[in-house]
Design brief:
The complex is a heterodimer of chains A (432) and B (86). Chain A has 432 residues and is α+β, with helices and mostly antiparallel strands. Chain A has 11 helices and 21 strands. Chain B is mainly β and 86 residues long. Classes of the chains: A alpha+beta (432), B mainly beta (86).
Chain lengths: 432, 86
C-alpha cells in the first residue's frame, strides 16, 4: 500500500503522457491502482517565446490551444498570476447561450456554442455540457418586445429562439410562480433550446491539457509586472519569475485587463465591476432549464450535483474586490423567492464575486491595438465564459495571420474612436 | 453595509447613492477634437487602488459629491462637494 497524502495517491511509476481518457483506461487504472499523470506539466520559464498569452483562463488557454491545433504555433507560454481558472473562468455561473440582440453578437456566440458542443470530443475531456434550454422571462411589455426582437434576429441567423406564453413557461419550469398576482407577473419568455450549462472548471482544465499536449507551456503563479514596448512594438514581458522576450503578447485577463494594458500604454474604455453569485445546498433535480429574469436581476440553474446556482447583475459601483456582500444575498434571496416560493427553506452554501470588465456598449474589445504585436481579448463584461472557445479560435487566427478575422471585425478597439459601437445591452441577461 | 460619507448628510448607506464614476474633466465643447471628445466619453483609468470619483446622493440630499476611494478595499479617505477645490 502506498502512503495516502492530502487525498492523493503517490505513484512512483511514470505514466506515458498524454493519457487518453476512456472507459477502458478508467477500469485499468481502477484495477491496477496506477495514478493518472498530471493533465499539464510544470515547466521552466524560457527567456523567449513566439507568443506570450497573459491570463490562464478559458480565453487565454483556448487561444493557446487553437494556436497550436489550428495553426501549428506551439512556442507559446500562458502566464497566470495565480492558478488556472482562478479569475472569471472559475467564478461565472457557467451558462451558455447565443440568443443575443445584434446579428454580429448572435453569429459570434452561436459559433461558440457549436465549438462547445464538440469540445468534449476535441479535447478528450468531459466538459459536462448539458443543453437543457434557456428561458428569459419577460415581466413587462417593453421586455416582451425586446424578446420578440431577439427571437427574430436569432431566427434570421439560424439560431433557435422563440417567444412563449406563461402556460409554456409553467410547463417548462413547473416551480415558477406564473400567477397574475405576482409582484412582477410573467407575461412571456424567450425560449432558447440550444442554451444550457457546462462545468466551467472542466473547460479550463480540458483546454490546458489539450494545449500542454501540443507543446504549449503553462506557467501558473507567474505574474506579469511589466511589458516592454520599443518603436511602437511589443518586445517582451517582465514577470515575477524572470523576463521573457516575445514579439506577440495577448492580454486575456478580463477584470484586470486595464492594468495589463496600462503596462503597454494602451488606453481602454473599460471599467471593472464585481458580479456576485451564490450557490445553495444540493437538492433533488427539479429544474431542467436555465431561468433568467432581467426585471428581478437573477438567473437560476441547477447543476448536475443538484446545487442551485444564482447569479445577478454587476454591483452598482466599480471595484476590484471579490468579496460577497450581505445586501446582495438578501436582495437575491428575495428575488428568487418571488420566482420560486417553494425554495424558501433552501440554504445558501456560499457566495462569491468575479470581476467583469465592462465596456460602454456591452460588447468585447478584440484584436490588434496601436502597439504592434500587443493584442487584446478583453471587455467581456458578463459574457466572457460562454464566448471562450470562439474567442480563442478567433484570437489564434488573428495572431497567426496578422489579419483580423471577419467574425470579430466589429469588436475592434478603434470602434470607440469611430463611434461604431455594437450595442448589446438589450441582450444582457439581467439589467445593468 | 458600505457607508459613504456625504459632504452634507454625513455617513449614509451606499445604496442611497448613484455611482457616477471617475471624475473626468470635460473638454471644451467648442474646441475639442473628435478624438478628445470620444476619449472623454469612453476612456477610463480604471485603477486598482485610489481613485477620485463622483457619487450622486439620489435618495438623500440629491447633491453630487467627489470622493477618494480605494477600489480594492472600498476604503474612503476624502470627501468634498463636487466641483469644490481640493
Amino acid at each position: 500500500m502506498q502512503a495516502i497524502t492530502n487525498g492523493q495517491r503517490r505513484d512512483k511509476r511514470q505514466a506515458v503522457y498524454p493519457a487518453r481518457y476512456s472507459a477502458l483506461s478508467l477500469i485499468r487504472r481502477g484495477l491496477t491502482h496506477q495514478d493518472w499523470p498530471p493533465a499539464w506539466r510544470p515547466r521552466d520559464l524560457k527567456s523567449s517565446y513566439d507568443v506570450v498569452i497573459i491570463g490562464g483562463g478559458v480565453h487565454g488557454l483556448a487561444a493557446a490551444y487553437y494556436l497550436a491545433a489550428n495553426h501549428g504555433i506551439t512556442d507559446v507560454a500562458v502566464l497566470d498570476k495565480s492558478y488556472l481558472g482562478s479569475g472569471g473562468s472559475g467564478r461565472n455561473t457557467a451558462i451558455l447561450r447565443s440568443n443575443y440582440l445584434t446579428p454580429e453578437g448572435v453569429r459570434f456566440y452561436d459559433r461558440s456554442i457549436q465549438l462547445y458542443r464538440g469540445l468534449a470530443a476535441d479535447l478528450d475531456f468531459n466538459v459536462m455540457f448539458s443543453r437543457r434550454g434557456h428561458l428569459t422571462l419577460a415581466h413587462s411589455d417593453a421586455s416582451l418586445r425586446t424578446m420578440r426582437w431577439r427571437a427574430e434576429v436569432n431566427k434570421a441567423q439560424g439560431v433557435d429562439s422563440e417567444v412563449v406564453d406563461p402556460a409554456e413557461v409553467k410547463r417548462l419550469a413547473p416551480f415558477i410562480d406564473v400567477s397574475p398576482e405576482a409582484r412582477y407577473p410573467i407575461l412571456g419568455a424567450l425560449w432558447h433550446p440550444p442554451g444550457g450549462i457546462i462545468r466551467h472548471d472542466a473547460v479550463v482544465w480540458g483546454y490546458a491539457r489539450g494545449a500542454d499536449a501540443l507543446g504549449v507551456q503553462i506557467h501558473q503563479n507567474t505574474e506579469v509586472t511589466g511589458i516592454d514596448v520599443a518603436d511602437g512594438r511589443v518586445q517582451g514581458v517582465r514577470t515575477t519569475r524572470g523576463d521573457i522576450a516575445s514579439r506577440v503578447v495577448l492580454n486575456a485577463t478580463a477584470g484586470w485587463s486595464t492594468l495589463i494594458c496600462d503596462m503597454a500604454g494602451v488606453a481602454l474604455p473599460i471599467q471593472t465591476f464585481p458580479l456576485q453569485a451564490a450557490v445553495t445546498e444540493p437538492v433533488k433535480p427539479f429544474l431542467s432549464t436555465v431561468i433568467v429574469s432581467g426585471t428581478l436581476h437573477v438567473y437560476i440553474s441547477q447543476t448536475d450535483r443538484g446545487e442551485l446556482v444564482f447569479g445577478a447583475s454587476v454591483d452598482p459601483f466599480t471595484s476590484y474586490s471579490t468579496r460577497g456582500s450581505l445586501e446582495f444575498i438578501e436582495g437575491l434571496a428575495g428575488h428568487v423567492l418571488e420566482l420560486m416560493p417553494a425554495l424558501s427553506r433552501v440554504r445558501v452554501l456560499r457566495q462569491w464575486a468575479g470581476l467583469c470588465d465592462m465596456t460602454p456598449d456591452f460588447s468585447p474589445v478584440m484584436g490588434h491595438t496601436p502597439v504592434g504585436g500587443f493584442l487584446v481579448d478583453v471587455g467581456w463584461g458578463t459574457y466572457g465564459f460562454k464566448a471562450g472557445p470562439v474567442s480563442g479560435e478567433a484570437m489564434a487566427a488573428c495572431i497567426a495571420s496578422g489579419q483580423t478575422p471577419e467574425i470579430i471585425a466589429s469588436f475592434g478597439l478603434d470602434r470607440f474612436a469611430d463611434g461604431a459601437l455594437v450595442g448589446e445591452k438589450g441582450a444582457a441577461a439581467v439589467g445593468h | 453595509m458600505m457607508l459613504v460619507p456625504c459632504a452634507w448628510c454625513g455617513p449614509r448607506d451606499a445604496a442611497e447613492f448613484h455611482h457616477v464614476g471617475e471624475a473626468v474633466p470635460r473638454p471644451d465643447v467648442g474646441s475639442a477634437t473628435r478624438d478628445q471628445w470620444r476619449a472623454y466619453l469612453y476612456l477610463r483609468a480604471n485603477p486598482c487602488g485610489w481613485t477620485t470619483e463622483t457619487w450622486y446622493h439620489r435618495m438623500g440630499c440629491r447633491k453630487f459629491i467627489t470622493i477618494e476611494r480605494h477600489t480594492e478595499t472600498n476604503e474612503i479617505r476624502a470627501v468634498r462637494a463636487a466641483g469644490a477645490a481640493r
